[in-house]
Design goal:
Structural class: mainly beta
Largest sheet: 8 strands, antiparallel, barrel
Order of helices and strands: HEEEEEEEE
Radius of gyration: 19 Å
CATH topology: Porin
CATH architecture: Beta Barrel
Helix content: 10-25%
Strand content: over 45%
Number of domains: 1
Low-confidence stretches: none
Number of strands: 8
Mean pLDDT: 86
Oligomer: single chain
Length: 183
């Protein structure tokens, strides 16, 4: 059943992307790795992908960027007679609007958007009475980003950006680096 569902999702994504490319709205795909700093946590790594959508009806330089982001951070502490394991995860779906300054060579950009974060925490510490305690929360939040792209070829760019997700109690700063394929 899961294989059929995954196949259907991939097929749907391919059909939608083909339709967007044919309508000349699809402008590219960005794949990136992130260094995530969540409020009250140390830094850890995450992965992200976003799609660029551009319309001739909108002012030149603006892109709509639907995205998906994911990170997971786990810790295990073992001392004689005591073990604690904790895991935090965040899967985010959202969209940013980005303005890229038009210039030759490297190009700076700024943007803002909205995201829905699916956060979960798991703690396992049987010695203190926590057997697989879990907590999940869904939060919406604003985001802001600033970055720069460096052209490599006609269709490939490197980029680096700094992104802030405003989520009361769960705010995050991300340093993203990746590669962009563009039409």
């Amino acid at each position: 059943m899961r294989i059929v569902l995954r196949f259907c999702v991939v097929t749907l994504l391919l059909l939608v992307s083909a339709a967007l490319a044919r309508a000349q709205v699809f402008s590219g795909v960005d794949l990136m790795t992130s260094t995530v700093m969540q409020q009250h946590q140390s830094s850890f790594s995450g992965l992200s992908a976003r799609v660029g959508l551009r319309s001739a009806r909108i002012v030149a330089g603006f892109d709509l960027l639907p995205y998906v982001e994911y990170w997971r951070n786990g810790t295990r502490i073992e001392v004689p007679g005591f073990t604690i394991t904790s895991t935090r995860k965040d899967a985010t779906l959202g969209a940013d609007v980005r303005y890229t300054f038009q210039r030759e060579g490297w190009r700076p950009y700024v943007g803002a958007g909205l995201g829905v974060h699916f956060l979960s925490t798991e703690v396992d510490a049987p010695e203190v009475g926590l057997d697989h305690a879990t907590d999940s929360v869904i939060k919406g939040g604003l985001s802001g980003l600033v970055g720069i792209t460096f052209p490599l070829t006609r269709h490939l760019d490197n980029f680096m950006d700094l992104k802030y997700h405003h989520l009361p109690g769960y705010s995050q700063v991300k340093i993203n680096m990746g590669i962009a394929w563009k039409l």
